[in-house]
Amino acid sequence: MPQSTDADRIALAEAWMAQDPDPETRDELAAIVEGARSGDAAAAADLADRFDSRLAFGTAGLRGEIAAGPNRMNRVLVSQGAAGLAAYLLERATDGTTPSVVVGYDGRRNSQAFARDVAEVMAGAGVRAILLPRLLPTPVLAFAVRHLGTSAGVMITASHNPPNDNGMKVYLGGEDAGSQIVAPADAEIAAHISRVAEGTTVPELPRGAFETAPESVVDAYVAETAAIAGPPPAQPRVVYTAMHGVGWETMRRVLETAGFDVPTLVSAQIEPDGRFPTVTFPNPEEPGAMDLSFEAAREAGADLVIANDPDADRLAIAIPDPSAEGGYRRLTGNEVGLLLGWLVAQQVTGADAAAPAADGGGTRGTLACSIVSSPGLEVVARAHGLDFAATLTGFKWISRAPGLVFGFEEALGYLVNPATLRDKDGISAGVAFLSLAAAAAADGRTVADLLDEFVERFGAFASSQVSIRVTDLSRIAGVMARLRAQPPAEVGGVRVERIDDLARGVDGLPPSDVLRIRLDGGARVMVRPSGTEPKLKVYIDAASAEGTVAERRAAASDMVARLEAGMRELVA
């Protein structure tokens, strides 16, 4: 909704303030308007940034910085989003039943206020609205959609984004089975939201009474999650951090129910705190985010570090490593995913890779991962006679794989219990990984030993990622266009065998702006724009099954390094 003059934007801002129920964002916007009126160029530019576009509703719902205006996260935008989602659900309810929604929220700034707005507005529109009893992890909300049999779920969270961000994540029940929304639902909901924003002010939206979910919902999640772990045969020494998020209360109950000892806690990060005071970014993947965990692990002599992100849908694992600075190394998302996939494959088939399923596979479940995650999961699936599926990035796709028994993505997301919920879950994955470590410890082995055994059985799978951050998004489009128009014949001196343009819907996948480069020797490079940040992302994978464990690792790592150098030249 672009406007041509400062006066137009000032008028829009005044209309926005008139409907904003939040005094903090009203006052914030009033100061900017006053500055723009007095000729302050920075204030005028700020208004343009806030009012010349609107925060888009997509398959990730809404997510952005908390501030006033349609291009920010605030109570006006959340109320409009709730009214649009309600209209969508009512439109779909053709059988005369009343649609329903369950709403959850984490410990970020404004999360509870946003959640109450969603529940009240949707109740006022005629949707049965149920609010979870307190701040809880995202996996509990995803579980509640299925457990309560609701038409939809809304989680107020920005996961591991910077402190001043928040978001609104949408799940659908019924035939969607509690998965996140995908096309065309996102566009249909967005159209309803636009109609609300254009035709109704927030004070005009009716508000109704919502229900509060009973504690039995949380109890059921705890019981079903704890059930994935048998009685621990050993008790590894564990350090746990919630990264200032909401994971610990629920994780503690699950661990106790499953019979595990209470871990050593990173006390400075264990309570919910939306300011995230001890980390630059509350994301276990970020450099420095796990420094306090490593410090606690050294003091405790820990065998394992378990970290959740702030809404506990992701999991990071670290293990002792004498060669690493500080004595501990965070495993990559691919390493954790491959070990968990191997664990689930053995559980499902009752057999190790040395004894594949007698039926030849395909009848007892599917291991799935995103197209940019390690190809090693397919090797595990085939060795155990299971199906394999590679999906587009995001658990909205992974969770929909037919016959799913396990899914993961390299960005620290894992689903080990798809019968319980249909989204990544850092709590259940943490318990599953702890069970794996406990079983190894009972046999006198470590997680590092398990990684070696994986390489010995299936080969070494090395991976790397290149992220190119830009200020001008056209640069990303230009690189993608150039790679399509002038496809490289080699990367880092390795011959290109084939380039698949996934924009054409390759392998039955929905069209996506991704290039897959196949190289001599089986290595692979994936290139795509980031879906959430102004970045071009390059994913590099190589494998080796020749020689000793050390030789396999070295060969795969050397190939990845060679391809990484070549790709940096190509996308520069």
UniProtKB/TrEMBL annotation:
<dbReference type="GO" id="GO:0000287">
    <property type="term" value="F:magnesium ion binding"/>
</dbReference>
<dbReference type="Pfam" id="PF00408">
    <property type="entry name" value="PGM_PMM_IV"/>
</dbReference>
<dbReference type="InterPro" id="IPR005844">
    <property type="entry name" value="A-D-PHexomutase_a/b/a-I"/>
</dbReference>
<feature type="domain" description="Alpha-D-phosphohexomutase alpha/beta/alpha">
    <location>
        <begin position="55"/>
        <end position="196"/>
    </location>
</feature>
<dbReference type="Pfam" id="PF02879">
    <property type="entry name" value="PGM_PMM_II"/>
</dbReference>
<dbReference type="InterPro" id="IPR016066">
    <property type="entry name" value="A-D-PHexomutase_CS"/>
</dbReference>
<dbReference type="GO" id="GO:0008973">
    <property type="term" value="F:phosphopentomutase activity"/>
</dbReference>
<dbReference type="InterPro" id="IPR036900">
    <property type="entry name" value="A-D-PHexomutase_C_sf"/>
</dbReference>
<feature type="domain" description="Alpha-D-phosphohexomutase C-terminal">
    <location>
        <begin position="497"/>
        <end position="546"/>
    </location>
</feature>
<protein>
    <submittedName>
        <fullName>Phosphomannomutase</fullName>
        <ecNumber>5.4.2.8</ecNumber>
    </submittedName>
</protein>
<dbReference type="InterPro" id="IPR005846">
    <property type="entry name" value="A-D-PHexomutase_a/b/a-III"/>
</dbReference>
<dbReference type="GO" id="GO:0004615">
    <property type="term" value="F:phosphomannomutase activity"/>
</dbReference>
<feature type="domain" description="Alpha-D-phosphohexomutase alpha/beta/alpha">
    <location>
        <begin position="233"/>
        <end position="318"/>
    </location>
</feature>
<keyword id="KW-0413">Isomerase</keyword>
<dbReference type="InterPro" id="IPR016055">
    <property type="entry name" value="A-D-PHexomutase_a/b/a-I/II/III"/>
</dbReference>
<dbReference type="InterPro" id="IPR005843">
    <property type="entry name" value="A-D-PHexomutase_C"/>
</dbReference>
<dbReference type="InterPro" id="IPR005841">
    <property type="entry name" value="Alpha-D-phosphohexomutase_SF"/>
</dbReference>
<dbReference type="InterPro" id="IPR005845">
    <property type="entry name" value="A-D-PHexomutase_a/b/a-II"/>
</dbReference>
<keyword id="KW-0460">Magnesium</keyword>
<keyword id="KW-0597">Phosphoprotein</keyword>
<feature type="domain" description="Alpha-D-phosphohexomutase alpha/beta/alpha">
    <location>
        <begin position="364"/>
        <end position="458"/>
    </location>
</feature>
<comment type="similarity">
    <text>Belongs to the phosphohexose mutase family.</text>
</comment>
<dbReference type="Pfam" id="PF02880">
    <property type="entry name" value="PGM_PMM_III"/>
</dbReference>
<dbReference type="Pfam" id="PF02878">
    <property type="entry name" value="PGM_PMM_I"/>
</dbReference>
<dbReference type="GO" id="GO:0006166">
    <property type="term" value="P:purine ribonucleoside salvage"/>
</dbReference>
<dbReference type="GO" id="GO:0005975">
    <property type="term" value="P:carbohydrate metabolic process"/>
</dbReference>
<keyword id="KW-0479">Metal-binding</keyword>
